[in-house]
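We append the chain.
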Amino acid sequence: VMEELEKLRQDTEHGNNNTANNRTQNSSDQVRVSPEGGLVNGFMSSDGESLIPGPMDQDTHQSGEETILSSLRDQLRQCQSRVHYLETALQQHHAHAHHILTVTREQHAAEVQNLEAMMAATQQMLGQHIAKYKDQ
C-alpha cells in the first residue's frame, strides 16, 4: 500500500491523473476492510476512518506539506529576527564598552596628571622645608 501511495504521489506530480486513478482503485481493491468497521488489513484506524488513500488524502498531504513549509518559514523568520536583534545588541554593547574605555582612559590620564602635580608641589614644599631647616 505504501509503495502504491508513493507511485500515486509521483504520478500526480507528473500529471498522470488517469494512471493515478487506476492505481488508487487497484490499491483500494487490495485493502481488506473488516465487516465490523474500523479494521483495515487487520489494523484499527485510530480515528475510525478508512485508511484507504483517496483524493482527499492527497489534498491533506499537500496541505500538511504546506503547513510544515509555512511553519519552517516562520521559524526561519524568527531566527533571522533573533539574529538581527542580537547583532544590534552586540553593536550597542560594543559602542557602550568603547565609550566606557574612552572615559576610563581620560579619567586615568587626569588622575595621573593630578598626582604628578601633587608630587611636584610636595617636592617643592619639601625643598623649602629643607632650606629653612638648613638656615636654622
